[in-house]
Design a protein that fits this description.
Blueprint (H helix, E strand, L loop, with lengths): L7 E4 L9 H14 L6 H19 L3 H15 L6 H14 L10 H8 L4 E6 L3 H11 L7 E4 L5 H10 L7 E5 L2 H10 L3 E4 L20 E3 L6 H8 L1
Parallel strand pairs: 1-2, 1-4, 2-3, 4-5, 5-6
The chain binds magnesium ion.
Length: 234
């Protein structure tokens, strides 16, 4: 048996394995339409983003926090006069987001299937526990993963902890994802490889600059190129 450089490959889930942000964008559009008589769309979106930023530290990432931020924004935009039926529709639209279909991205299944033969695969994701468990179950990808970590935030400490527990430590691990801020920069800080797979839609709060002078930083256009990249490292 050959000794491999890597033992463990971490995968982000939302917009790396399956579509996610597009459903938030649709929900946000619907939300701005519900409040159209009180303010214009861009203004509402701006206030919503401010509320989301403020609330991250209270509610964490995911749909429940997003729904509460929509309600908070509705109260602000209407100076406290938001009608009860609009609140009810905001709650409905948040619940719809919790039941959207799971659409896996191209190359995901065959890539996971092949890599799972030689590596320990770990799904590492933020978001609501129920929602991520539902999406994993519906995706049919669960069997490829050795472990699933649903975490409140993704920092270097998170990656060090997960990759120390599973496989040969952070230096022998790789993190793959669409968020430079959550998936790539902190994984590289932990000593792992960070493979950035950009998605055309990525939440504005997940944007940071690509790391410079980082020998363990990689970027590929889609997951179909991951196996070739890994073969090149081994
Ligand atoms: Mg993501």
């Amino acid at each position: 048996m050959t000794t491999r450089t890597l033992t463990t490959i971490g995968f982000d889930a939302d917009d790396t394995l399956w579509q996610n942000e597009q459903y938030y964008r649709l929900t946000e559009t619907h939300f701005t339409e519900l409040l159209a008589e009180f303010a214009d769309g861009p203004k509402i979106s701006e206030r919503l983003l401010e509320a989301e930023k403020r609330n991250l530290r209270h509610y964490g990432f995911g749909i429940k926090g997003f729904t509460l931020s929509m309600i908070e924004t509705a109260i602000e935009i209407t100076d406290g006069k938001v009608p009860g039926d609009i609140i009810a529709q905001i709650l409905d639209t948040g619940r719809d987001l919790l039941s959207h279909p799971v659409e896996t991205l191209p190359h995901v299944r065959e890539t996971l299937e092949a890599l799972a033969r030689n590596y320990l695969l770990v799904m590492i994701t933020k978001g609501d526990l129920f929602d991520q468990e539902r999406k994993l179950a519906q995706s049919g990808l669960g069997d490829f993963f050795h472990a699933v970590e649903i975490v409140s935030d993704k920092t270097a400490v998170t990656y060090r902890r997960v990759f120390s527990k599973i496989g040969g430590g952070p230096e022998r691990a790789m993190m793959v994802g669409n968020s430079l801020k959550s998936d790539i920069v902190p994984a590289i800080a932990a000593g792992s490889y960070g493979v950035f797979v950009p998605h055309e839609l990525t939440w504005v709060l997940e944007h940071v600059d690509e790391p410079k002078d980082a020998p363990r930083f990689r970027k590929i256009p889609h997951l179909g190129e991951l196996r070739g990249l890994i073969d090149g490292l081994e």
